[in-house]
Amino acid sequence: MFTFQLQHTDPKSAARAGRIETAHGEIQTPIFMPVGTLGTVKGVHQRELESDIRAQIILGNTYHLYLRPGLEILENAGGLHGFNGWKRPMLTDSGGYQVYSLSAQRKIDEEGVTFRSHIDGSSHTFTPERAIDIQRIIGADIIMAFDECPPYPCDYEYAKNSMELTHRWLDRCVKRMAETGGKYGYEQTLFPIVQGSTYPDLRRKSAETIAAAGQPGNAIGGLSVGEPAEAMYETTDQVCHILPKDKPRYLMGVGTPENILECIALGVDMFDCVLPTRNARHGMLYTSEGIINIKNAKWKDDFSPVDASNPCYASQQYSKAYLRHLMHTKELLGPQIASLHNLSFYLWLVGEARQHIIDGDFASWKEEMVKRVQRRL
Amino acid sequence: MFTFQLQHTDPKSAARAGRIETAHGEIQTPIFMPVGTLGTVKGVHQRELESDIRAQIILGNTYHLYLRPGLEILENAGGLHGFNGWKRPMLTDSGGYQVYSLSAQRKIDEEGVTFRSHIDGSSHTFTPERAIDIQRIIGADIIMAFDECPPYPCDYEYAKNSMELTHRWLDRCVKRMAETGGKYGYEQTLFPIVQGSTYPDLRRKSAETIAAAGQPGNAIGGLSVGEPAEAMYETTDQVCHILPKDKPRYLMGVGTPENILECIALGVDMFDCVLPTRNARHGMLYTSEGIINIKNAKWKDDFSPVDASNPCYASQQYSKAYLRHLMHTKELLGPQIASLHNLSFYLWLVGEARQHIIDGDFASWKEEMVKRVQRRL
């Protein structure tokens, strides 16, 4: 059921336009996936995700959903689709990253990771098998392999051992996937994850290992964890040359609009990041003309739309002055408007990228856009 | 331009169905007006107010809007309609109540009230004339007279002096209204306010004074400030008998669903209250079957809609279990869903009341509904 069709390649870069088919529908790539950590994209209704933002796939988070609402409720609801009412494709990360970044007293060994909940201190163990089982229950169309995501910077020995552990865990994830079926009658697909920090030989080894696993799609992890943008681009470039062309490539946790444009040019098809929603809640707006800090005094009597070039309801309906007022008075509607706007912009951006790939002028458009989206307005 | 047409009266109670016409459109009464204190109904987009909640008129708050965003911005925006994009009728309270309840170091004298801002401690003076001028700038279709709202309980002498001050201030409001015109080219209408605490002779005197002022609509203030429900009903009943039948009656700050039903039966046409939104943010849902505390464990695996009998998107789309999860995890979407639901229920309730008045069976329907809406589910 899961298929990827490579539709166009850019003549002047490695950018690609493609089409993923899942049990919950189609995804046109390159794509940005809004993050719905706890089963909700913060501040955004499901119908807004569908109609205003035009999201094609959203993320859920295994670590968070496992803790709250918990597997019994998710299973009784028929998975996260049944629980939150989202009808389109969904991807879950495996929880590895959150175990390392959020939980207390984590202990990693060959078997898996034992950690204490950041909410109530209760003890839990994730193994590769358990991470697959949980994601089966959440009902994601795309399930991520359970990996260790090392910090940055990370010494070579740690990065090497961590990568090798991630590869051994992948074998167990693949085995568990094969032993189990789609929990709710539709196919669920595993994406393995390339690790290796920023060491080229480790990244090459990892990319080759992940490519050899022969799964329907592949991911690049361990980036956007504090390394310089150049290191991110170099590693992504190297890995994209090794990962198979006929399968989608997902760069995890990336990033700013310029990061996304640059990595599309390197051959990445899928992105996710909390930036558009998290920064929205702090009043930072991404637009096709640059970045707006809506809290600044300069917007206080600017009655023009939040972003006249963005077709989204929230960008058109509300003025900059009104949004500034809402952010200053800490009104709920402020983050709501800014989140709608930013996500809508991200989806517009990848949609434009796709169109320019199809039209054959992606490289020159990208050069211009990378400059524009970084300007401070 | 402002007109009120009394369309139906209930044979078994004092309930009325009517129609108000303002420069921004029509209001069918009885009506509930969602409160948009700072120019936003908390957690609700303008299009949701229009299409999902079907609000016909919303409130703004003079005290809050005067402090933030301030009059210069509101005036440059063309008033609050221009600032927040709401196209339908708007009413502003005069700021009197908030001066007494929120501000620090307030000093009341014949001239007006001097107070310090609850935000930055800055000093400001509201007089009856100033309250009119500010509401002209906000651009409300219905402007409230500047009054003193005494606390409850309140000794007789204080209540009497306060009421007499309110009456003298009303004369100044009426004079100022006559001296000034609609700020943005459309008519703005003054509603005077009956005070007198819970003393029948003061209420009678005040209602007669307010009726004699001959304004197009009249309000009852100083209730829903801590007095027993019976005192509220008795005072409302008494005042409604004195206020003219051919003008709309607005009971300020009321109330629970049963308060609204009872006061419709006493002849009130307009209501506002923060309860549906404030309680929504704490997980209390009003439904036609009773009150739900969505945080309770009993809802954790109830996958039925938030309220199957409410046609609102949010009530239909999301399950009780999902909303409980959102409230427990303090996700923004929780208050958003609950606010949409509660306001939608309030508008449904007054719409049903209106229909039953027109159909002639309001009294029996009201008796049944008053019982149902108070049940704890």
TrEMBL record, chains A, B:
It comes from the Bacteria. InterPro entries: ArchSynthase1/Queuine_TRR, TGT, TGT-like_sf, tRNA_ribo_trans-like. Pathway: tRNA modification; tRNA-queuosine biosynthesis. Keywords: Glycosyltransferase, Queuosine biosynthesis, Transferase, tRNA processing. SUPFAM superfamilies: tRNA-guanine transglycosylase. The active site is at D93 (proton acceptor), D272 (nucleophile). Substrate binds at D93, S94, G95, G96, Y97, D147, Q195, G222. Residues 253-259, 277-281 are annotated as: RNA binding. Belongs to the queuine tRNA-ribosyltransferase family. This is Queuine tRNA-ribosyltransferase. It comes from Phaeodactylibacter xiamenensis. The gene is tgt.
